[in-house]
Design a protein that fits this description.
- The complex is a heterodimer.
- By secondary structure, chain A is of the alpha/beta class.
- Chain A has 5 helices and 5 strands, in the order E-H-E-H-E-H-E-H-E-H.
- Chain A has helices spanning about 20-30, 45-55, 70-85, 100-105, 120-130, and strands at about 10, 35-40, 60-65, 90-95, 115.
- Chain A has a 5-stranded parallel beta sheet with strand order 2-1-3-4-5, with helices on both faces.
- Chain B has 3 domains: about 1-40; about 40-260, P-loop containing nucleotide triphosphate hydrolases (Rossmann fold, 3-Layer(aba) Sandwich), CATH 3.40.50; about 270-320.
- Helix content of chain B is about 45%, strand content about 15%.
- Chain B contains 11 helices and 8 strands.
- Chain B has a 7-stranded parallel beta sheet, sandwiched between helices.
- In chain B, strand 7, helix 7 (about 195-210) and strand 8 form a beta-alpha-beta unit.
- In chain B, helix 2 (about 15-25) runs antiparallel to helix 5 (about 125-135) and helix 4 packs across helix 8 (about 235-255).
- The chains are: A alpha/beta, B alpha/beta.
- The interface of A and B includes residues 28 and 52 of A.
- Strand 2 (about 35-40) of chain A pairs parallel with strand 3 (about 90) of chain B.
């Protein structure tokens, strides 16, 4: 271990969306990939998720969404993180998000990446490990 | 992020969480920030909560936060979970029980992975306590990993240690053993609505009464054994945790009144200095041995029985230490 920087990731579910098989499996795969993972559990608010991300100083805040409210929700999460001083925390998404919305979310800069159904866990873990934001001090 | 130390002194939560992270990752410059804040530390009451995996430490911590918040106290929590010995990864799952406080500005929860440290906590716990202390938290709760019998490192960091027991973990001989059972300032018998709780209570009380004049640092303190019941009845649960809160504060007052706090502080400080020396002396040598490939060669030679670990240690000590300690 020693001096290497460990990547930290928060995975979250919000509102009444209880489809969390995907995030749970991702949490496990990330742990097995040498990442420190936190999972919020179900029925959280965006505020709780943002506060948690800042207090835990994670590199990525991942939100899994199956409700269709992804556009507004991701934008709100991004805004809240920025307002709490977490501008350097990258947001990533997963769940049932249509292709055109995925592209729009990434292009607008709100979300760093979106992984949909069928995405390979290993490749998500690899992506996270290679795209962790730089830490200047 | 610049001036972490100054920003923590100014109460910046984001800077505090980054500082703790840099400490966990052992980034060398980080110690400058600790030097900056060190003078301001030592104001918080540090509470350790330890016990077996699944004993209910996180749920108890959550309710304890609530009990202190109802009195207007601010609370910091350091929750430790194990790092995988195989991958270096970790699933930090304590916080999931405390999320109802996520939006409360008076509560700061930080999860830590053990990162290979033994003893039930992580190496960054000591400094993490300093950071929360400087942020002005009235109470700092350190929740250890689920422990066995030997992980007692928490006594070097906490003023008050709570050992959480649950029914069904073994006979009365377990209660007589050294280690975990000796470090409690307060025992909590959790899930006391379960079968076997009465027996466990009696055994623990017996043990406590026998060891009244124990060698520990809370000499003269009558160790209480508290029963905490069913999470499923929130009212009863909250009430018993409020009793626990009062006992914790009573213990701290006892330490102050009987001039025992300084003894604890000395031990804590000794452990801290030892840790710092370790980091300043041994860590750089280990790093050199690793990066030069010498460590690997030493392992190979030892495996072939060409040499033994003690002679190797002697050799390294001769090379790096001006004065080799006499044996």
């Amino acid at each position: 271990m020693g001096n290497e920087l460990v990547i930290r990731v928060l995975l979250a579910k919000i509102g009444l969306d209880s489809h969390d098989r995907g995030v749970r499996l991702l949490a496990r795969n990330l742990k097995d990939g040498g990442v420190e993972v936190l999972y919020t559990g179900l029925y959280r608010t965006i505020e709780e998720v943002a506060q948690t991300a800042v207090q835990e100083d994670v590199d990525f805040c991942g939100l899994s969404m199956h409700t269709g409210a992804h556009k507004q929700t991701f934008a709100q999460l991004r805004e809240l993180l920025d307002s709490l001083g977490g501008g350097d925390i990258a947001v990533i998404g997963g769940g049932a998000i249509p292709e055109q919305d995925r592209r729009a979310l990434v292009e607008s800069g709100v979300v760093a990446a979106v992984f949909g159904p069928g995405a390979n866990y290993n490749s998500i873990v690899e992506w996270i490990k290679t795209n962790a934001p730089a830490r200047n001090s | 992020m610049k001036d972490l130390g100054q920003r923590v002194l100014a109460g910046d939560v984001r800077a505090a969480s980054r500082l703790i992270r840099n400490l966990e990752d052992q980034i060398t410059d980080t110690y400058i920030a600790i030097q900056e804040i060190f003078k301001e530390t030592g104001k918080s009451h540090v509470i350790g909560i330890t016990g077996a995996p699944g004993a209910g430490k996180s749920t108890l911590t959550d309710e304890l936060i609530q009990a202190y918040r109802s009195q207007g106290m601010t609370v910091g929590v350091l929750a430790v979970d194990p790092t995988s010995p195989f991958t270096g990864g970790a699933l930090l799952g304590d916080r999931i029980r405390m999320l109802r406080h996520a939006e409360d500005k008076g509560v700061f929860v930080r999860s830590l992975a053990t990162r290979g440290a033994m003893g039930g906590i992580s190496k960054a716990v000591g400094e993490g306590i300093h950071v929360m202390d400087v942020l002005g938290k009235d109470r700092i709760i350190v929740e250890t990993v689920g422990v066995g019998q030997q992980e007692v490192e928490i006594i070097n960091h906490a003023h008050t240690v709570i050992v959480v027991l649950v029914p069904g973990m073994g006979d009365e001989i377990q209660a007589l053993k050294a280690g975990l059972m000796e470090i409690a300032d307060i025992f909590v018998i959790n899930k006391a609505d379960r079968e076997g709780a009465g027996k466990l209570y009696k055994e623990t009380m017996n043990m406590v009464q026998m060891s009244r004049d124990r060698a520990g640092v809370s000499k003269g303190w009558q160790i209480p054994v508290l029963l905490v019941e069913s999470v499923l009845e929130p009212h009863k649960f909250a009430e018993s945790v409020e009793k626990l809160r009062d006992k914790i504060d009573e213990h701290y007052q006892f330490l102050v009144d009987h001039d025992l706090i300084s003894e604890r502080m000395r031990r804590k400080t000794a452990a801290e200095i030892q840790e710092a020396l370790w980091g300043a002396i041994l860590a750089p040598i280990m790093e050199k041995l690793e990066s030069s490939g010498e460590m690997k060669r030493m392992i190979d030679r030892t495996l072939l029985k060409e040499i033994d670990p003690y002679s190797l240690a002697d050799e390294i000590a001769c090379r790096y230490l001006k004065e080799k300690p006499a044996k």
